[in-house]
Design goal:
Two copies of one chain form a homodimer.
Chain A lengths: L2 E6 L6 H14 L3 E7 L13 H10 L4 E5 L1 H4 L3 H14 L4 E6 L4 H13 L1 H13 L4 H12 L10 H15 L5 E6 L18 H11 L11 H14 L5 H14 L2 H5 L8 H8 L6 H8 L6 H13 L3 H7 L6 E7 H10 L7 E2 L11 H11 L5 H8 L1 H4 L3 E3 L3
Helix pairs in contact in A: 2-10, 4-8, 5-8, 6-7, 11-15, 18-19
Chain lengths: 405, 405
């Protein structure tokens, strides 16, 4: 069976994702599609609007065959680490190809840019260092360094999906993987778009924004498959809310207020004395947005700050992160279709990492960050019993099994 | 001026407190009455139903002349430490007498019991040790040890106010204070009473319970002065709630879930491996009450567990507490009447501790625990702007000045 991988967050799964999925299948002649998906907290340092199980269900309902979890250690990270973890896991799942969306749309340009990067590494590093001294953020510095190389047939590294794609292709090279990368040009909606610009395709950002602003399902119905809409509505009805940062703000504020400077300094990504500003701004802020506005500077991008906030919320300490960031050490199965199950039974014996479908005492240590992420995610739920249930779901919820009716 | 001290929590100030205050004035010929009052968290390990400033206002409106704060380090403590801090501060304020309510009502019996305790210390310690080995709580063990002495004219140390009184009188002896203790027999209501048993006098416990169960001011109006009722109503209207543990439960649960075993072990009063049970019970509990029911054992009294929970909520670490528990090192002025102000200006120059009426940068270190207590107390407020205001009130709110109209 020809297995194709995709790297996703599905927050939520929408028509753009469906287009990408179908194109990826077609382009790579896939017999089975495996999604490696971030868990309850996402790359941009946000809680997912619905739990990883509901997002798994959306993915399977739309045609994905297997969903595995990108561990917290790789999910809430800058593009490079995120890409490394994701590609590593797809390779571990014996995918022969993977396909990502990009603004560029031409895989040769990615391969070429990665090659140029390797050939000019010292030069690029020097420019990045120089630019950062001027006080700009790391992504901006990287983008400027590449621009200065003036690569023919290079990609525009100021585009968010190109950045991710660059790191995917670079990860393949770094780990000497046999998986082959493909790319598809993204249609209509851009990653960061906050407003709708098409009738059926919209970014996940704009879909979430529309929902939280209007609480009107009609506003988003035309941009997502009916299965996504139903899953979102069910979740909302059962849990009483979708998730966003503001639900976690009281806890972040509480953590900042009651932590000592020394304790904050132990948290992953808290660097360069920012712990003092965190302590200073926390008690005077009235919302997460207010706090972020106060914290933001030219050097600290919104995304970097948000990721730092997730790590503070989770109390993830540097040394613990460093230990588990070396490489993924397990494959957590979140869900599968019938086709996916067949594929799994075929490859199971040859996997080099343990495939975890049930969280027992024996794997709790291994999954510590992911379990903590679910518990922390649950704390934002207001209904007390639903909060308890969600917090313990890693232990009670088997992988989603989706059978086409 | 003859200054009399009282040791109070006023949660809230009620008719029983008024009776005690007037009797104390009469009995000690007081020209001025000074209350040393717990701040936002109380001796039994609970948040006060209204802030320390509102409780100060209630006290002044009812005839107290000066309110000073019993620092967190002494307030959220077992009787012995609580009593030591309170008596030490009254002595520092140059009170010549102080008066406490008790079930016994006879000061000679307290003095005699303390004397017996000193004379039989080794014997008592041995019995306490023996009893605790049987698995009973410390207070029960102490009570049994005293019973075994069979003191003629002793006091019943199974009664909560007698226990406190014993420690007040013992503290006077321990610190060789010149302040003279008086006691008044408590009328009608017992400390732990949860239900009303008189028309005008009820315990603070029963008053709080009646309010939270009915949210009906008429249920408590006959048990408190009109000034208390008005202050409670104003607070409720402005802040949107009175405080109780359940408002802080999500934060305690969050803290327990995201703290490592090692971090919990650093917290004051977390001993004997209870950190493992705390971690185990937190995610499966749906309320503070539910959690406490799960945690409670014969050895750990409800009160001891509640105090532990406040320390966990506050993130108060053992070494920091030990440092500041040696003796009160400042007098924090919360409020005064005109009469109180005159007294203050008279004694000000002779005070051996700094009198703090304004929290500037120079005293933040000194007051660290009390400032943290107010911030933590504020986190339980749902209205976002009120939360922020309350959290910062130590810096913005001058001492309450009460002038009789």
């Amino acid at each position: 069976m020809q297995a194709t991988g995709v790297i996703v967050e599905y927050n939520p799964f929408h028509n753009g994702h469906l287009y990408h999925l179908n194109e990826a299948k077609r382009k790579t002649n896939a017999d089975v599609v495996i999604a490696v998906m971030s868990g309850n907290f996402l790359q941009r340092g946000e809680p997912a609007i619905v739990s990883k199980w509901t997002r798994t269900h959306m993915a399977l309902a739309a045609g994905i065959d297997i969903v595995i979890e990108l561990p917290y250690t790789f999910a809430v990270q800058k593009a490079e680490t995120f890409a490394f973890g994701a590609v590593f896991l797809l390779e571990s799942m014996k995918c022969t190809r993977f396909c990502f969306g990009s603004e560029s749309g031409t895989i040769d340009h990615f391969v070429h840019t990665v090659q140029m990067f390797k050939n000019h590494k010292n030069q690029i590093d020097a420019i990045i260092k120089q630019e950062m001294k001027k006080g700009v953020s790391y992504p901006t510095a990287v983008s400027r360094a590449f621009q200065s190389l003036n690569i023919r047939d290079g990609i525009d590294l100021s585009q968010p999906n190109n950045i991710l794609g660059f790191h995917y292709v670079k990860a393949v090279d770094d780990i000497q993987a046999s998986i082959v990368p493909y790319t598809i040009e993204r249609k209509s909606a851009h990653y960061h778009d906050e407003r709708f610009s098409s009738d059926t395709i919209a970014s996940a950002t704009s879909i979430r924004k529309a929902f939280f602003e209007t609480k009107d399902w009609n506003q988003i119905a035309s941009y997502v498959p009916v299965t996504t809409l139903a899953a979102l509505q069910n979740y909302y009805q059962e849990i009483g809310q979708l998730h966003h940062w503001e639900s976690y703000w009281p806890f972040l504020q509480y953590r900042l207020i009651t932590s000592s400077i020394e304790q904050l300094r132990e948290i992953y990504e808290v660097e360069e004395g920012i712990e003092y500003r965190l302590k200073e701004m926390a008690p005077s802020s009235v919302s997460f947005h207010d706090f972020m506005e106060k914290m933001k500077t030219k050097r600290y991008t919104w995304t970097r700050l948000q990721r730092m906030c997730v790590h503070i919320l989770m109390n993830t300490r540097k040394e613990d992160m460093w230990k588990s960031m070396k490489a993924p050490s397990y494959i957590r199965l979140l869900g599968m279709s019938e086709n996916g199950r067949n594929y799994l039974s075929q490859i199971k014996k040859d996997l080099s990492l343990p495939l975890i479908s049930k969280v027992g005492a024996n794997v709790q240590e291994l999954l510590a960050f992911d379990l903590l992420a679910t518990r922390t995610y649950g704390i934002g739920v207001k209904k007390t019993k639903k909060r308890r249930d969600l917090m313990n779901m890693d232990f009670t919820c088997p992988p989603v099994y989706f059978k086409k009716s």
